[in-house]
Amino acid sequence: MIEGFSWEWDAVSLLEAAFVGGSRNAFILGKKQDLVSIRLSFFTVGIDRIRNGGKNMSVIQALIISIWVALIQARFFGYAGLNLRFSPLMTSLFVGVVLGDVAQGVTVGAAIQLISMGQIAPGGQMATEPAVSGTVATAVAILGNLEPTAAVAIAIPVGILGSYLYTLKIIVNSFVTKYIDRVVNNLEDKKFTFAIGLLPTLLTMLTHVPVLFIALYFGADSIANVVTQLEGTVVFHILDVVASALAAVGIAILIRIIGQKTDMFFFFLAFFLTIILKDLGITMVTWAVLGIVTAGIYTMIMINAKEAA
């Protein structure tokens, strides 16, 4: 072990090492006493930047995150992909894993999740795209070491832009519907998987990956630096207040959607129990398990009551 050096290995670091090792000395120019190494691989651009404690994003990291979000938007994962699209918490978790800060990723994702609760997507279209907003905002928060409230303020405009990107995806996919109809009508089994699954996925990646990659690789650092400079100013205080209010709005929308008075009883019971028993140190995972068990018991009671009637 060389004194003064510390090594941090993760999946991304291993990928970077593989790419860099394969192209480190691709060409040697000039005289022997004045050698210049040129690295050809596109993937090494930005990888050798000083990480500053993991605060810079490499090309590999930006590409992995961009592809992940594109696959979610393409519903590549089926029904799971639909849930991933509406859950910034899961997307933020993935960003945290890639950037090497899972705790910060989950914390920011939970904050963004509050403002997206209760949102609906009539016709599949949302006012703000949770997956896109969660991705960019979490990356900015990790790179700039920002508070979750600041990340929420960033997530709103990014999510709105993401909704336009999703609209573009729908428009592009509409051009291949005639081809899909022909494949289905002619019962061309060999082309069915490509027409229904692979082709829309490829088109979604075409519309999302370049935009997200540029936003993450070239924009995340810049946004993080700007927000860091604003920290402690009046502007930052306003963003904190707005972010807190948006979280309250998200909870209010969720309460309104619950609707039924009997269900509201469980909501308020859980809310006040978490406050009263806060000193016991019960984790959110434990509360979630208790909620699932309670919901299961209540469902069985209601089913038995209907059968008895």
What does this entry look like structurally?
The N terminus is likely disordered. The protein starts with 10 loop residues before the first helix and ends with a helix. Strands 1-2 form a two-stranded antiparallel sheet. The chain is mainly alpha-helical and 309 residues long. The chain is built from twelve helices and two strands, in the order H-E-E-H-H-H-H-H-H-H-H-H-H-H. Helix 6 packs antiparallel against helix 7 and helix 7 crosses helix 10. It folds into three domains: 34 residues, no CATH class; 200 residues, no CATH class; 51 residues, no CATH class. It is flat, with a radius of gyration of 24 Å.
Q: What best-fitting shape do the alpha-carbon axes yield?
A: flat
Please write the string of helix (H) and strand (E) elements. Answer: HEEHHHHHHHHHHH
Global Rg: 24 Å
Q: Which runs of at least 5 residues are low in confidence (pLDDT < 50)?
A: 1-54
Count of alpha/pi helices: 12
Strand content: under 5%
Total strands: the figure is 2
**N- to C-terminal separation?**
75 Å
User: Percentage of helical residues?
Assistant: over 70%
- Give me the secondary-structure category: mainly alpha
The strand line-up of the biggest sheet is 1-2
Nearest-integer average pLDDT: 71
Total tally of structural domains: 3
Organism: Enterococcus gallinarum
GO cellular component, one term: plasma membrane
Subcellular location: Cell membrane
Membrane topology: Multi-pass membrane protein
